[in-house]
Amino acid sequence: MFGDPVFNEMRWRRCKLKDISVEKLAYGSGASAIDFSGLRYIRITDIDECGNLKPDKKSPNHYEEKYLLNTGDILFARSGATVGKTFLYSKEKYGPALFAGYLIRLIPNLSLVNPVFVYHFTNTKFYKDFIAKVQNTVAQPNINAKQYSELDFILPPLALQNEFADFVAQVDKSQFACEIVIKLWRNSLKSSII
């Protein structure tokens, strides 16, 4: 739909990740995690391999407003074995949340990009190659906010990005419906065996 970002056959506008952000990419809070008390504290370890949050919830021991997430914010893991992993935040899906210091936040400029498109761009081979090339491997792999800011990015028309996001939403709904049917089928099968 968008072509290869390397060759850019579609001749989309090229830019850097920093060019699609409302403000500079920023590091998260240094608060400690405590038992959950209503405000979720998202840490690198809370994001699974599929880019979803694990069910275990923690809260920060204190917080500042500047670390509160808004729907559409994208988090990037900056250190360790998970460097490069990303997460697309939705307040409706995950409730109010704050992000931790080993994550970097991108606040997408909604007049330029659809956050769903940006998130899925971070699941491409192009992005994975960028991570492999840029990460510093001293004691443990890491990428800082400035390095993420310099990621080359293609910028298709917003209408096309929105069309893509609508398609992804339909696929997600279909996948969810299939998962429910499979669970019902398994439960039915278990009941018939017993």
Automatic annotation (TrEMBL):
GO terms for molecular function: DNA binding. GO terms for biological process: DNA restriction-modification system. It comes from Streptococcus mitis. This is EcoKI restriction-modification system protein HsdS. InterPro entries: Restrct_endonuc_typeI_TRD, Restrct_endonuc_typeI_TRD_sf, Type-I_RS_S_subunit. Keywords: DNA-binding, Restriction system. Residues 58-176 form the Type I restriction modification DNA specificity domain. Belongs to the type-I restriction system S methylase family. Pfam families: Methylase_S.
